[in-house]
Amino acid sequence: MSSPTFRARRPSDPGTGSAQHQNRILAALPAEEFERLRPHLTPVTLELKQPFWEPDQPIEHVHFPIDLVASVLALTEEGSSVEVGTIGNEGLVGLPVFLGAPSSPGRSVTQIAGRADRIDAGTFRCEARREGALRDLLQRYTLAFMTQVSQSTACNRAHRAQQRLARWILVLRDRTQSVEFPMTQEFMAQMLGVRRATVSEIAGQLQAEELISYRRGMIRLTDQPGLERRSCECYRIVRREFERLLGVPMG
Fold this sequence. Notes:
Layout: E1 7-8, H1 24-27, H2 31-37, E2 42-46, E3 51-53, E4 61-65, E5 69-75, E6 81-87, H3 95-98, E7 107-112, E8 114-120, H4 121-128, H5 133-158, H6 161-176, E9 180-182, H7 185-192, H8 196-208, E10 212-215, E11 218-221, H9 224-230, H10 233-246
Antiparallel strand pairs: 1-2, 2-8, 3-7, 4-8, 5-6, 5-7, 9-11, 10-11
Helix pairs in contact: 5-10, 6-8, 6-9, 7-8
């Protein structure tokens, strides 16, 4: 598979240490481990819906998001998809590589455009095998991500579309550290595995309750406590697990 197209951006100031990095995994690394990785990190900017990997195709790069958000999608033989994982600056896009797999049956795409640091999959695999903080962080992140995937699977089956949309908006708020982000109804419907008309209806309900505002492809969260009350318990379960395992607040 060819690499995703990207716009190069200026690398971070060489004097900036790992603690100042905007990706939380890289920020948590001891300075010496970060400095070993730094020469292999390429700053990139990805557009909406750009693929990180396609089903059963080699995963060529691992990405550490800075302000972009990625979706991991489960696919069916009929061609439909539903989101099972969301990744922002708390993690990395490319866990199959860490786990020793060259590919994945699912798909991963950019959900919100933005910046990331990219590393070649082979180089990342070698670095992740070393004893040290990186491997420890990746193991704990893997466990947190597995909780997210399993909880998302249960959520998609057990909870109403309005609860799931509320959860999804809250997750995006945590991943972007922003109360406003671009999102079309078509993309929301794909992520939630529902019809576009369903998204339109429930988004309208949340807007009527003044929990969000939605216009011209932009969602703005206007009442976070209220939206949390509309969400299911899955949001709180996953958030607590990420905070417990990674040791940083997600909000």
